[in-house]
Specification:
- By secondary structure, this protein is of the alpha/beta class.
- The protein has 29 helices and 14 strands.
- The chain has an 8-stranded mixed beta sheet, with helices on both faces. Strands 2-3-1-6 form a 4-stranded antiparallel beta sheet. A two-stranded antiparallel ribbon has the order 4-5.
- A hairpin with a 5-residue loop joins strand 2 and strand 3.
- Helix 2 packs antiparallel against helix 16, helix 8 runs antiparallel to helix 15 and helix 19 packs across helix 20.
- The C terminus is likely disordered.
Amino acid sequence: MNLDPQQSTAATILNSANVVAGMIRFLHAVRVRRGTLVAALLISAALGTAYYLTATRLYDAHAQVRIVQSERDHNTLTSEQLSGQSSNAVFQMMSTYQRIMSGDRVLSAALEDLPKEYCIDFEGIAPEVWPTALKNNVTVTNERGTTLIDVRYRSRSPKVAAFIVQRIVTEYINNINRSYGNQTLEDIQRLTEEKEETGRKLAEKNQEFLDLQFQSGSIFDPEGKSTSLLSLRLVELNKSLMEAERVTLDAWSLLQSVEQAARTGQDLQQLLFQAVESLGASILAKQMGLGEQDAWAVARMNEDLQQLRDDWNEKRTILGDNNLELLDLAQRIRTQEEIVTSYFQRAKKNLAVNSTELGPQLLGMARQRYQLAMSRQQTLQQQFDLEKAEAVNHNTMMSKLSIVEMDRKRLQAKDDSLLKLIEHLQLVGDEGIKVDLNKLPKAAKLPSSPRLVLVIAVCFVLGVGGGLGLIYLLDLLDDRFRSPDELRMQLGVPVLAMVRAMEPTGGTGADTIQCHAKPNGVETEAFRTLRTAISFSDRQAQRIVVTSTEPGDGKTTVMSNLAVAFAQSGKRTLLIDADMRRPGLTALLGLKGQQGLSQVLRDERPIAASVADNLFTQITPGLDVIPSGSRPSNPAELLTSERFSELLAWAETCYDQILIDAPPVLAVADPIIISRMVDGAVLVVRPDKNRRRMVIRAAEAFAAVEVNLMGVVVNHLSSGSSGDYYGYGYGYGYGYGYGYGYGYGHDDASAAAEAELEHEADVEVLVTEESEPLRRAA
């Protein structure tokens, strides 16, 4: 799907915002779990300290040599050319000089007659493997673009390291002087002999190649590509053979037709006309009584007749049918046609007279033609077989020729390489190789391993990285909201209030509500904040449904205190317990019985009269309550009926504020049904209990049906909560379960016993067809 520029920009901004939000959330996690980060740093520091104190101290010794060439006079080169060639030659050979220093020959010589006090690095090692042990601790490098070679050795003693490096450099200088002195002349002589032998083999291969070329009979172009005359002859013979086979088949077919006609006594005249192309037109003219002059005359008259017809057609379009010239031309055409017709009539009579001699003559010519065609085919077939056998031998010879050609190229390449190497050694031998000691080895004062700065840096990086990784893993496994900002960013709705954990009041009925029992208590201030946030909402908020994510989140406690807070502000408030499955609000206020919402929705009387019989007024000043009533078997159907809409419309005319208590949104569909009929919904969340995925699913359930989710109420904060993270204090609530195979808990401990008794009394309630799929979906 293609996005327009505005949508693309919006998507980019949204992605950036999500990245920033994720970083902020992770920084919050780091801030709160800073103890984990400090512990990781301390562990890393402890391990680094242990390593630094127990690690073996190693010391490096370092020396540097320079490769130069001494230049001598040459008759054919200037000094500048000689200098350039010398530098290029040295640079090309630097890798060789570097490998020579770290080679077994130099290292073995450096270990010969090594004093005992300098053998501490080889204790417990057999002498025959000392060069290998030395090579493992020697590092030889070349600074790019220079002729400088660095050699470095690491030992447990600084004096031993310096002594070993000195021995290696000394043996290297001696080895270079020996190798590029007399050794250069010996190498040139050996390579010259090898080049002569290679040249002799190359000459033999060249001669063998020429002989095979001559024997193959192939033609070679200037690029060396061959063209075989034998192959060309074979192709032409194949074409001729195919044509001969076709002619033989045609002759055989004609012979069969003539023989069949002769046996059955058929008219041979028609067959003769068909055989004109195969046997020739002479026999046909002879049988028709026409000589060569007659045939030429007939052909001439036909040409004249056609010319007259063309002239007549051309002039007719210009002169018209009645023109004298056109009439004269028409008479000439008729005369010419009569002459030609008379010739053909006479020829036809002659053909009828001579038809008795036609059969034997035609049969003999057909047989003769077939025999000639067969003879030619056999001759071509024999010649083709001979050429084919010769081509097989030719292919074998061409294969040998290819092998010889590859050998020639290999020997030629080797000869060229030997020539270049000899020229290089001659140049080096003329100019000479010198090795200067550029930097003397010295005993180190401080160990190269372990290095304190490096150990500290590694410990810090490992400690911080490990601590951050552990914090990220712990935060990923802890699927709960850790701060109000995170809750607001994840859900996209504001946090309306934050309610601390409250102790039960110990009263009954309205006295169980904190705002009523302790109107001046600290706990009640959160509900006044919630009331203010709802009252000053930018949308109409007269009818509100209060629900939660899952059982035990405290929605009934929050809603009942919010209702009292609205009533205390002077608003006429109606509280409806729409949880007809497990009515927590009804049990909390002690209003259990037949009267309530279920009775109003099933009643057929006018809504005002029905509400009057099921309304409990003045629970507290300004607060009326409609309890849930008796439990129906179809609560979802009752809530979707027109009766419930009429109830809300009636309440809107009589009350300033209407609050509806609904079941948890992930348990049943009742909250979604109710929220479609009201102004907005409030979601109660317990961050110490609710998982992030469950809360997000609850918010998405409202968004899917385009319900106005006004915000969330963070409930049950412990007294130890910080400004960034929610505390995990002691929770309160009472549990109850549905008879539908799932359950959720009440929000207030004072109603626990009552709910348990009701659960036991209603265990046998049947599961409706509507509630079961909703339970599975939840």
